[in-house]
Amino acid sequence: MLPRERVIKTLRHEEPDLVPWGEHSIDYVAYEHMLGRRTLVHAKFRETQAQWEDRREELVECYKRDIIDLTEALGFDIITVGGMYPEGSPPRPLEQVDQETYRDGAGNLYRISATTHDLCLFKVVTPPPEPPTVESLQEQIDRIDREGVPRPDETTWDVARYVIEKMKPTHFINMCVGDIGFPCFGRTDDERYTNLALYPELHAKLTELNAKRVIAMVPYYAELGLDSIMPCADYGSSTALLASPKVFAEHMAPWIREYVRAVHDHGMYCIKHCCGCIWEALPYLVEAGYDGYEGIQASAGMDMKRLKEEYGEQLTLWGGIWNEHLILGTPEDVLNDAKYAIRWGAPGGGFIYGASHSLAVGTTRENLLAMKEGREKYGVYPIRIAD
Fold first, then answer.
1. Confidence of residue 291 (pLDDT cuts 50, 70, 90)
2. Which end is more exposed in the chain, N or C (fewer Cβ atoms within 10 Å of the end residue's Cβ)?
3. Are 231 and 178 contacting, i.e. CB atoms less than 8 angstroms apart?
4. How far is residue 22's CA from residue 353's CA, in Å, rounded to a whole number?
5. CB 349 within 8 A of CB 10
6. Bridging pattern class, strands 228-231 and 269-273
């Protein structure tokens, strides 16, 4: 069975020959572990520097080559693609303060994270933004209603088009895209969620504006020939929703239904990425018609057995291997995750194998190989895993 057929079969809640495998994001360490060479694909600050230096041709060729080579090395069924900055528009470099610290034009400071290897904001000196007015938000909404949103520069999709053309005959192609999140504004998470509580009169208009932006992009994704898109707003912390379920139900859920309907009307599957504990949001995701749910964070209480029992008939469940175990655990921990997730998630179809978030910085080669082994050992249909 071709990888593409395998994924479509499981999305229809039918049993394929083998549980399909894919990841919504893969950091450079997985490429280097498996391919034995240096890469710029999701290479964090190293990739940022390449962008600042406008080494775009090198970046594009690296992405084209390494995405396909890693797919073959690990046996992925799903390939997730994304955009690249347009030709002639490299990001503006920040001012270097010291070996690890950089400053933007407004004076805010960024530092290279020792954990993620990315450039992260750590000191904000600019004043908080003024809250938008209902009138200003309505003006932006009216403009989208009249004109839509600008078509992305064609060179944005150089990598995506290459992968689709080369791999879609055999593989299922997915893209992470914008989503409808909580109606926040501000510079930091603390500021955004404080403003969510302080300005309830803006919730409806902020949500409508965001929703109309992301929905207007759907035809552009469909033109690429994608099989699915993956809206990527997070709704949960490690213990509960990030904000009130009432805000989610009243303002976000109706627009999420419109978003998923637009995706289906354009012939694509719609699979939700969401970290954290989101039990309170799941009924709304099912009602919206999502085909799948990815990013199942077991460490936040999102248990595969319970998910399958309560939502397995409506949602394809995508995940199973704890990120914590891929980074800090042993191969045995990873194999135990595989055994548990496949045992409870895979019977009857409707299950895609993957990490609880991504193949992130810190993932060891031994644990990555154990993840591959776990799928091959336990994921052959019919599923027969004893206690």
1. very high
2. C
3. yes
4. 7
5. yes
6. parallel
| DSSP output for 221-257 | HHHHT-SEEEE----B-SSSBSS-HHHIIIIIHHHHH
CA distance 264 to 301: 30
* Assigned token pair, 321: 């291997």
Answer yes or no: are the C-beta atoms of 169 and 204 closer than 8 Å. no
In a 3-state reduction of DSSP, which class is residue 377?
A: helix
Among residues 302, 256, 253, which one has the least CA distance to residue 276? 302
| Bridge partner list, 177 | 231
Residue-by-residue DSSP string for 280-293:
TTHHHHHHHT-SEE
What is the bridge-based pairing of β-strands 351-355 and 269-273?
unpaired
Look up residue 183 and give its two tokens: 């109606």
Q: Residue 122 — φ and ψ, nearest 5°?
A: -130, -15
User: Quick one: which of 303, 282, 301 has its CA closest to 293?
Assistant: 282
Contact (CB, 8 A) for 371 and 321:
yes
Single pTM value for the model: 0.97
Residue with tokens 């041709």: 57
Give the tens place of pLDDT for each residue, 102-120.
999 999 999 999 999 999 9
Tokens of 54: 């406008």
- Would you say residue 387 has pLDDT above 80? no
Contact 281, 235 (CB under 8 A): yes
Phi, psi (deg, nearest 5) at residue 60: -60, -45
Domain boundaries, the chain: 3-92+130-378
Q: Please check the confidence at residue 125 and state whether its pLDDT lies above 90.
A: yes
DSSP 178-212: -----S--SSSHHHHHHHHHH-GGGHHHHHHHHHH
Q: Is the pLDDT of residue 386 over 90?
A: no
**Residue 265, both tokens:** 């009307």
* Contact criterion met (CB below 8 Å) for 313 and 351: no
134-147 and 203-224 helices, crossing angle to 10°: 20
Mean of the per-residue pLDDT values of the chain: 97
157, 85 in Cβ contact below 8 A? no
Backbone angles phi, psi at 291, to 5 degrees: -80, -30
